[in-house]
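CHAIN AND CONFORMATION:

***
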Amino acid sequence: MRIEDVKLAVVGLGYVGLPLAVEFGKKRPVLGFDINKRRIEALKNGHDHTLEVDDDDLAAAKHLRYSADAESLAEANVFIVTVPTPIDQYKQPDLTPLIRASETIGRVLKRGDIVIYESTVYPGATEEVCVPVLESVSGLRFNEDFYAGYSPERINPGDKQHRVTNILKVTSGSTPEIADLIDDIYADIITAGTHKAPSIRVAEAAKVIENTQRDVNIALINELALIFNKLGIDTQAVLEAAGTKWNFLPFRPGLVGGHCIGVDPYYLTHKAQSIGYHPEIILAGRRLNDSMGGYVVSQLIKAMTKRRIQVQGSRVLVMGLAFKENCPDLRNTRIVDIVKELGEYNIEVDVYDPWVDKEEAMHEYGIQPIAELQEGAYDGIVLAVAHQQFVEMGAEKIRALGKPEHVLYDLKYVLTADAADLRL
């Protein structure tokens, strides 16, 4: 196949797939496919509710068409799969969306076609899980009749600086020739350049350790924060002082959620355990980061008790529900840990987040965010997400939401040290 013969389809139009489809759609015909019909209709009407792509950018993708009809995929010969890869309640990889997407593609797969996966997986998943599904459904043979590739996504939701085109792209293919073609396909839109990995397994491993490294580093800083809090030392002040050294890494403590950092390490540890190795550092980091919501609540309760604020029956405001600032993404948000833990104390919890979709919050977590803030109503305030709206409010307006006697906990260092009662 020559690059000019490529007929592209992007399967899965979420935070990863849509920006990719839009960039390709500015240059070549692309079919954007998603099983969510409401999502397809919204995109046809020119709006992305995830806010990753603005309306003008959507309109600029003149060659991009949308469909929820799986049969329409038959016109493509190169498929890019960008479906979610979550974990289940037991923190095991849930490859169901990936398998379903592979089944859908397998039904229309033809000789010479290429299937490229971008979803985060463990090393070996593409060839051990996805390819057998493609073979079984299509009746075709891998690397004889059809081919595969892996190019890990590097989307950072809410980040308007690091976009698809200006983030260097790792590529790989199941044969040297296919690897070259896949690299050329991405190089057509990636201005930052590409890095061709020597194998699919290397590309898969590279993706999964990117976020595992971040997770372990954040866990270290979270543990340091626990130590410094016991010592009565301000963690932010310590990090600022240490940060004056040229090679000190600028990580900050906090809750670790989202679709990548809080999930990807479990894919790697799952694979490691399947081959008889029990990871210690990675899982220790995960345990510590997963415990931070409970720690935050314990600190808040202690501070309220010291001020003789009645805990049971009190009201606490949690400001922010999205997993990070200035985006509506609720996937794997760890703010829910705080909300649930506060509920264990029979505390009335209000959650306010101007970014998130209220129906999605209710559907995913059973949380109904309040529509408006109320002054003078709360015994405790947890500033959990550094949305720009909260930054602009400042300490005085945030304090005004509390009762005359209340505790303000700033998890994200939005306020100065003397403006908050507690900081992580």
